């Protein structure tokens, strides 16, 4: 775990938010509502009865030790591995049965732990393809107006993820941190309503981590994100709320400071049992 040492000793042990059930009544301003979401692989319940609510515009981290079920939860939300029980609502709509692509069309995006970039293409072309891929006109490559709008959107993204100065470089020549910035840019194509970031700081140098924090703290206010991140220095700095998972279940929800000072969370991150 990258930043265990950054967890300070608890001022006092205390109970943070209750794990069971959505924390409050459903509201139309909720971006993502999970109720009893479970994903089994044979006898293993990788995600077990998870309920949580992410408000529109909210930035949330999901923490947990290796194997806690974080990525499986992301896969359930995106539909890559749909839940075996429970429901998922996205801006009030039940999307539990929808295909991954239908969820993308509704404004859900994700990044992956491993890179999905086209390494031989330029930074600009990768972003252009991402823009075209989520566009309503994605099959009309030859229509000048659609092409013009996509080029403008591509330029916006280049600037937003601070890669305009290397727009025409091939991805294969980029530093690792720049590639992760580009992945974030691609997830931002098409004005998403919620992005799931899967360990964006993995493998980054300290300087690249600072750049990542800048990017994550400058995300549009109305857009939500959910972040899986082992680097607690980053995770606790860029979100308003934290959900901690353990053995597939929600252990607790809380603010970054509540979670940082929680004895039970510390025990898990130190590799202890609770
Ligand atoms: N496709 C799969 N088939 C079988 N078991 C799986 C599959 N995907 C995940 N698992 C199991 O589910 C459990 C949770 O895995 P998951 O990858 O969701 O954890 P995680 O919290 O994301 O871990 P990490 O921090 O290491 O990425 C693990 O025991 C894992 O082996």
From TrEMBL:
Superkingdom of the organism of origin: Bacteria
**GO MF annotations for this entry?**
ATP binding; ATP hydrolysis activity; L-isoleucine transmembrane transporter activity; L-phenylalanine transmembrane transporter activity; L-valine transmembrane transporter activity
Asked if the Swiss-Prot or TrEMBL record annotates the protein with the keyword Metal-binding, the reply is no
Using the record's annotation, list all stretches that form the ABC transporter domain. 32-272
Pfam families associated with the record? ABC_tran
Keywords, A to Z, come to: ATP-binding, Cell membrane, Membrane, Nucleotide-binding, Transport
**CDD domains for this protein:** ABC_Mj1267_LivG_branched
The cross-references to PROSITE patterns, in alphabetical order and at most eight, read: ABC_TRANSPORTER_2
Write down the InterPro entries for this protein, in alphabetical order.
AAA+_ATPase, ABC_AA/LPS_Transport, ABC_transporter-like_ATP-bd, P-loop_NTPase
Naming one, the record's GO cellular component terms include: plasma membrane
Which GO terms fall under biological process for this protein?
D-alanine transmembrane transport; L-alanine transport; L-isoleucine import across plasma membrane; L-valine import across plasma membrane
Protein name listed in UniProt: ABC transporter ATP-binding protein
What is the native source organism of this protein?
A: Ramlibacter henchirensis
